[in-house]
Structures are given as structure tokens and as C-alpha cells.
Amino acid sequence: MNPLGPGFSIPDGPQWSRPAAEKPTVQQDRLETSQTNQTGLMKPGLVKSAPSLAQDSPRPYPAAPEDLSKGSALANLSSKTSNKAAAPLLPAGLAQCLTQLEKPPRAAEDANPTPDGWKLPANPNSTPLRPRDLFDIPVGTEDLGPLKIVASSHGRIRALRLQWPEEFQEPAFGAQKAVLIDLCTRLPQDVHFEVVAEGLAAAALPALLAEWELPAERIRIHPLHLHATPEQIYHPMTMWARDAALLLRTQDDREVLLLPRSFRGDCQVDPKLNRHVVQGTGAAPACLSRTLPELLVRRSTLGFEGGDVVASRQSALIGGEVLARNMSELKLGKEAVLELFREQFGLPVTVVAPPPEFHLDLGFTFLDDQTVAVADPDEGMRLTAHLPEMSRLIQATLDKGVTEKYQRAAQQLTAQGYRVVRLPNLCGVGLSTPYLTYNNVLLENYAGARRVYLPVYDVPPLDDRAREIYRSHGFQVVDMPSARLSTKLWGAIRCATGELRVSDT
Questions:
Q1: Helix (H) or strand (E) holding 350
Q2: Which CATH architecture has domain 142-503?
């Protein structure tokens, strides 16, 4: 999930446009994984123009700076007013960092490729580049012995990894804040958080934690500073930690953070521009290999995104598009690719095809080893048909045509021996309404304790029905109201987190 647009460099003056025609100074790529005074070279979230909110894309972007209210901090920063004028409009912790924006080092490029057509110059050096991994993550897991994916349906959460982009614009900033507060206040007090924070956000976050009265002793910040150069395209980090890694375990109970072969082109070379591609979201879990030396981090030979993999202790579901993409990229047949996934995950693999949504975990949840909760948009529409304020979500659900897809998937899973229960669901309209998923949850199931951290939206007919279903399966329900904000960016509590440590007791 990538709700934020490509980044821009902070220029010396107040302008926010593309750089002038003069040739930029060629700079060396900069990679920093510890605290630095040179923060904030890239700020994601501002793009040339805002796309329509009615689009089907699961990657909506915030509005362009020229479209912002003149009362917003970023509008002031993008005008001729001083940074001091914007300070009162930012949270206190962020206002402290505005002085760092006065005269930062100038990056080589002001813009990255955007969906609405910005173009970048090719690398001025015509020597062909080779793919490279900034963090030199070992490829393959053969030396670790058999691995098994950590189930999302069982275990006790001990540590989660999060991502904090250098993004101070709404609705993204409010969603990040709400999710972090929910996690810190609603999960057990012994759960710890490893937060990879980008650029200026790394400098701002300690003050924000104090302002929000969150337990700093449970939150470790891992600064990450990356930027664009004439030889490197940088796509800034998003808040969606789930996307670029999975947690597996060795036979002797060591955790392994498994990265895909390439997350949306990360570590590859753009062939037209002859420039390395660096994805901030791909780099975030990779950088933990340096800051958490006890953690095993490996790169798979397979391509996947974390939201497209849902596992119990006995089997895993993957989306049909994941299978098709690997067949194409590896030049292998269906059964050969499935066997590779079985070997990698240490479990039988079931393919959901076609996947109803862009990520599987928006609509599929293992409640136990054999029970799968599948989204039911038809029930969502039925339960809210009498509420005029839900008409946009009902129409969005009809427009996307997901009802039949989920029904077909439920029938397929039943035919393959799974017990299937249905959860209400309604699609959203990006940036303007929540996306009502009750599947995008965190579960704990250990030593008699069964808890679900459940997205809720202040829509009683659906919230109450979802609570009822989970309770009927023995779960204590812990409400996570941050989903009302975060799903405007197309993700709830599972999307925003990735497991780092899960114990059996």
C-alpha cells in the first residue's frame, strides 16, 4: 500500500517546481542508518496534481501544494512566507524541526516519476548500471535450513515493526499518529515497536512521542536517510510496513525477516533512464539488518507483497496475481512456482484467484488453522442500506464489483476443505471515506488468550456485526478506531504493522 506520492527535494528558495535547466551537481548516493544532522532531503507526499478521488487505484496521493488550503503548514512552506509562519500550524514536535528546512543540502533532482506524467532525465553517465542492493542482503535461505512462515492466527505478539514516512500532510500524518497511538495504548504493555523513520521524521519523532505521552521506552527509532541523485531514483517510504517483508522462523526458533526478490523494482535499474531504483518501503525492513544485528534478514528468490500472504499454522493463502507474476518473471509453470512457495513458507499453499482486491488481507483472515473469515460486501450493503451517509461507500462497492469475487472465493475455499465465515465489508473512496474492512486485523491466540485488534469505523450496524462474529469464535475484541483515518489511505492495522517477534506463550 502506497498512499503517498513521490518525493521532492527541498530547494534553497521558496519555489516547489522542477529545477531550473542548469545541470545539477552530481552527488554520491547517500545511505545513512544512524542519527544524522543532515535530515529531510526528501519529503514525500507532494505531486504535480491530485488524481480523482473516484479512481480505482489503491495508491491515492494527497493534494498538490497549490491545491492546499492556505491555512495549511505545507501551503505556507510552499509559498513565499517563512517557515516561522508555518510553525504554528504544525504539531509542536514538528515545529521544532522547521529550522532544519532553512538551508538544507540541495539534492540532485527535485522530482521523481509520478503517475501523472512527470519525466526525469536519464543518467548523464551512459555506462550501463547493474542492479544493486544498498544493504547487501543475502539472497536465499538454504543455509538456514527449513523455514516456516509465522502464522497470523496464533501466537503472542512481542514486537512489531513500523514505518514513519517524512510526511506531514493530512490525511497521511493524522493516520500515522492515530495508528501509533492505538498500538501503544491498546496492545499489551510488554509489546515493543521498532520504527524505521525517514529523514526529517526521524528528528521529529522523539518530540512527538513526548507530546502524545507515548512510552518512549517501548519505541526504538531507526533513522533512514535516502535521496535521489542523477544515478538513483528514490521512491519515498510509506507507512505500510506489511508490504515489503514477511516473518518466518527457523527450526531452532530464530526469526527471519524475509524480503521479496524486488519490492516494486527496488534494487533494480530503470532501463530507460539507466538509474538505480530505490523504494523507501523496500529499504525500511532491509535497514534493520544493520540496526538489529540479532535479526536474520534475507531476500527471497520469489516476488510477493506481505498483504498478499495470509497464513495459519497449517496453510497459507496467496493471491492469484502473485502466482502469475512469478510465473512470468521466473519463466516457470504454475506447479513449479507453487512448489517454490511451499518450500519457502514451509506450508501447503492455496491460491485465491482472482483476488477480489489489490491485497488479500483486506478480505481474508485465518481465525484458526482451518477457519477463514472472508469479506462479505453484500452483507455490508444490506446492513447499511437505510443509512444515507453510507451511499457513497455502497456505490463504490457496487462499482468495484467485489461482491461476486468474494462469493466465488468463499466457495472455492469451502470446496478445498476450509470452514468459511463471512465478515461485513464496504469499499471506500480514496482520501475521502474509510474503507470498511474487518479482515485487516492483528490476532493473538496463546495459552487460553484469544484477542483480535479490530478496525472499527463508528458505523454501528457493521462494527457490531463484526464484533459479534469474532466473539462467537472466542475472541476478546479490542477496538482500533485509527482505521477510520488509515483506511482513507487504503490500509488498516495489519497493513501498518509487520511482526518481528511472536512467541507461543
A1: strand 349-352
A2: 5-stranded Propeller (3.75)
